[in-house]
From TrEMBL:
Belongs to the bacterial ribosomal protein bS1 family. The keyword Ribosomal protein applies. Residues 58-120, 138-209, 230-298, 315-387, 404-474, 491-554 form the S1 motif domain. Pfam families: S1. InterPro entries: NA-bd_OB-fold, Ribos_protein_bS1-like, Ribosomal_protein_S1-like, S1_domain. Keywords: Ribonucleoprotein, Ribosomal protein. This is Ribosomal protein S1. The keyword Ribonucleoprotein applies. One of its GO terms (cellular component) is cytosolic small ribosomal subunit.
């Protein structure tokens, strides 16, 4: 408007210019004045257009309210024409008045030049501009919860934008009751951060959790800066596992391992702790890089071993309760000294060596009486024994089972290395498989015996300290190989019986039943030897250490056969041969 006034002023000034009458030429004035006015109009139009705002649809402008009518508001935006806004857009702003400056958006321009403006859409554009700025600068904004939708909440931010807050972004901890939270929070404001914005789809995602996590991170840094081993702090139990409990130290998590909960033996942390329980803990260790904090509870109180009576010593009898049973023994909590446990090894429970599992003799929570075997106050270790309360049967047993004595007993069990023989209560003897037979190579004792069989034995070794009796079965008879070397000389002739045919030859039982020889396949095929056939043979190899004899069948005349059989029968009792057997 200022530009128009200045132009009018210039026109009037030009029209009032003093011209002498004698110099005035009307015809010249009429012709020239028309041209001059045209030039002035063009000048005025150019000057006016130069000072006007260049208007396009969707432009965001600032204007002044000039009129408030019944259904619309007139706004001057420094253009040829004033713009109008429906009054309905101001229903929430009833205190507007002429002269107020407001933001408007150009919606459209009518054919006569009239501008249709929108104050509401201008505010939305401004809100989006502010939202982008807040997102880029990571600023904190406020929002009002106005509704709920699938997966989260609808939040009004910056007055004009409806944003989405996922359920996972509401709180640092998962909500236990989403419905209750919405009911309590409806129409209430909360601080938020914009974590995602899509200008094309006009989508905004906000988070309250992000602010909480920032506060937690700040608290973490402050807490970690003041953190040191030995410091006692308050903590809240948040989660209990088999191996310990996770605690909240005020935004920072720490772990109490189950072995650091109590000086007493516990099977599970839930025996002592509950979720949401507030406890005192001591910082044991922490890793600043990984934000891992190791906590302890039992370290706050004195160690139970500090209360152990100074008069207690090795050899004393004590009572206690079985607290744990393992493969190798049991742990006993000493009576009147809570938290002090001693090991009762399975080998110290009974003199009976058949007892190999602690659970076969004791039970959890059972009260037992024991003798202290070892006591180390510095290492805080104690071992106990139960069998020491009774007499050791091995003290009196050596006279009953001296080396060389023979005993017939029942086979109790098999082992990988032999058989266990029951002698009497708490006493067993061991027969190694190498002592079961002089001539058979045995892989397992079950090849010769069954559990429950009677077996003849002789005591080979008695070890009082190791409480071990070694016995033999083959030693009941003399070792046939002790005299075989003199009898079965290479080149000598003997009788034998084919007892087994093998892939590589045959096994032949010689005159002594415990002595067997091997006949190679090539001579076996030549002589057409069959199983159980009685033969004459010649010794071609003798290996005493290997206990191996190799033979070859031979043919004798009838007269030589009779002489040989007669010679054998004079030396020992053998099965009677007939000429038919050898033919």
């Amino acid at each position: 408007m200022y530009v128009q006034a200045e132009i009018r002023k210039n026109i009037i000034a030009d029209s009032n210019a003093n011209v002498p009458l004698e110099e005035f030429d009307w015809s010249d004035y009429c012709g020239n004045n028309v041209k001059k006015e045209e030039r002035e109009r063009e000048k005025i139009s150019a000057l006016y257009n130069e000072h006007l705002t260049n208007i396009n649809e969707y432009d965001l402008l600032r204007g002044k309210i000039t009129k408030i009518l019944d259904k619309e508001i007139v706004v001057d935006i420094n253009f040829k024409y004033e713009g109008i806004i429906p009054l309905s857009e101001f229903r929430d702003h009833l205190n507007i008045k002429v002269g107020d400056l407001i933001y408007v958006m150009v919606e459209k321009r009518e054919y006569k030049g009239q501008l249709i403006l929108s104050h509401r859409k201008a505010n939305i554009l401004l809100a989006w501009k502010r939202a982008k700025e807040a997102y880029n600068k990571k600023e904190i904004i406020t929002g009002k919860i106005i509704g709920r939708t699938k997966g989260g909440l609808i939040v009004k931010i910056l007055t004009h934008i409806e944003a989405f807050m996922p359920g996972s972004q509401i709180s640092h901890n998962p909500l236990s009751d989403f419905d209750a939270f919405f009911t309590d929070s409806y129409n209430k404001t909360m601080e938020l951060k914009i974590i995602k914005i899509n200008d094309k789809l006009k989508n905004v995602v906000v988070s309250h959790k992000a602010l909480i996590e920032e506060d937690i991170e700040k608290q973490k840094k402050e807490f970690m800066a003041d953190l040191k081993p030995g410091k006692v702090v308050l903590a809240t139990v948040k989660n209990i596992t088999n191996y310990g409990a996770f605690c909240d130290l005020g935004g920072i998590n720490g772990l109490i391992h189950h072995t650091d909960i109590s000086w007493k033996r516990i099977n599970h942390p839930s025996e002592v702790l509950k979720v949401n329980q507030e406890i005192k803990v001591v910082i044991l260790n922490f890793n600043e890089e990984k934000n891992r904090i190791q906590l302890g509870m039992k370290q706050i109180v004195s160690h139970p071993w500090n209360s152990l009576n100074e008069n207690i010593k090795v050899g004393d009898r004590v009572k206690g309760q079985i607290k744990a049973i393992t493969e190798y023994g049991a742990f006993v909590e000493i009576e009147n000294f809570t938290g002090i446990e001693a090991l009762l090894h399975v080998s110290e429970m009974s003199w009976d060596k058949r007892l190999r599992r602690a659970k076969d003799l004791v039970k959890i929570d059972e009260t037992v009486e024991c003798v202290i075997l070892t006591l180390d106050r510095n290492e805080r270790k104690m071992s106990l024994g139960m069998k020491q309360l009774t007499h050791d049967p091995w003290i009196y047993i050596q006279k009953k089972y001296p080396v060389g004595s023979k005993h017939t007993r029942i086979i109790r069990s098999f082992t990988n290395y032999g058989v266990s023989v029951y002698l009497e209560k708490g006493i067993e003897g061991m027969v190694y498989k190498s002592d079961l037979s002089w001539d058979k190579k045995i892989k397992h004792a079950s090849e010769l015996f069954k559990i429950g069989d009677s077996i003849e034995t002789v005591v080979l070794e008695f070890n009082q300290n190791k409480k071990r009796i070694i016995m033999g079965h083959k030693q009941i008879n003399k070792n046939p190989w002790e005299y075989s070397e003199k009898k079965y000389i290479v080149g000598s002739v003997h009788t034998g019986k084919v007892i087994d045919l093998l892939e590589k030859g045959a096994t032949v039982q010689l005159e002594d039943k415990n002595v067997k020889a091997f006949m190679p396949l090539h001579v076996l095929e030549q002589e057409n030897v069959k199983k159980y056939k009685q033969i004459f043979c010649k010794i071609i190899e003798f290996h005493n250490k290997l206990r191996k004899i190799v033979i070859s069948p031979i043919s004798l005349s009838k007269e030589e056969e009779k002489k040989h059989i007669k010679k054998i029968t004079k030396k020992q009792h053998v099965d009677k041969f007939t000429l038919g057997d050898l033919g």
